Amino acid sequence: MTAAAPPGWYPDPWGVRAERWFDGRAWTPHVRDRPAGSGGRPRMHPGAIVAIVLGVVLALAVVAAVVGFFVLMVQGVVCGEAPHYCD
């Protein structure tokens, strides 16, 4: 079992620009603005970055496969027609 974090102000897990009080057991309803100089956006977890990159690559691969299928279909390769040259 892991030890709980000590009571204190932590970045709000539900808000970007606030801190929420953690009483050592649970989050409380008490929130406050982040102190100046505490940074803007929170950094993304490296796993999230990898997931985004893999998602984009997968989406591009699907688009390329669909476009390739239609190009080959128009050329007659997919439908089984013999290749021929246009007159």
Topology:
Elements: E1 8-11, E2 18-22, E3 27-33, H1 46-75
Antiparallel strand pairs: 1-2, 2-3
What does this structure look like?
This protein is of the alpha+beta class and 87 residues long. The protein has 2 domains: 1-34, no CATH class; 46-86. 34% of the residues lie in helices and 18% in strands. It has one helix spanning 46-75, and strands at 8-11, 18-22, 27-33. A 3-stranded antiparallel sheet has the order 1-2-3, with no helix packed on it. The longest helix is centred in the C-terminal third of the chain and has 30 residues, at 46-75. The termini are far apart. 0% of the residues are buried. The mean pLDDT is 80. This is DUF2510 domain-containing protein. The chain crosses the membrane at residues 48-74. Residues 7-37 form the DUF2510 domain.
State the helix count.
1
In round numbers, the mean pLDDT is: 80
Domain count: the total is 2
Structural class: alpha+beta
Percentage of residues in helical conformation: 25-40%
| Strand composition percent | 15-25%
Q: SSE string, helix = H, strand = E?
A: EEEH
Low-confidence stretches: none
Overall outline: rod-shaped
Rg, Å, rounded: 27 Å
Largest sheet: 3 strands, antiparallel
Counted beta strands: 3
Which sequence of strands runs across the widest sheet? 1-2-3
Distance between the termini: 76 Å
Protein name: DUF2510 domain-containing protein
Keywords: Membrane, Transmembrane, Transmembrane helix
Organism: Cellulosimicrobium cellulans
Domain DUF2510: 7-37
